[in-house]
Please model this.
Amino acid sequence: HYALLADQYEAAKLLLRRGARVSVADAAGRNAWDLVVGVKGRVADEELFLLLMSGAGAGPGAAGAAVPAGL
Model:
């Protein structure tokens, strides 16, 4: 969320490629898409748009893959 709000699109894309889940909501209940489109008004980066739309990192089993067992 912070990367998107700060226009740090390269950081946001890296996080998404590494498995960050786009469905995670902040304290106000907004997910990544809500922040980019609702707050910023648009997605200025084509690759970021595609990653958000595809739900990169949100596929089956992603919830358990984010944190290794035992941590």
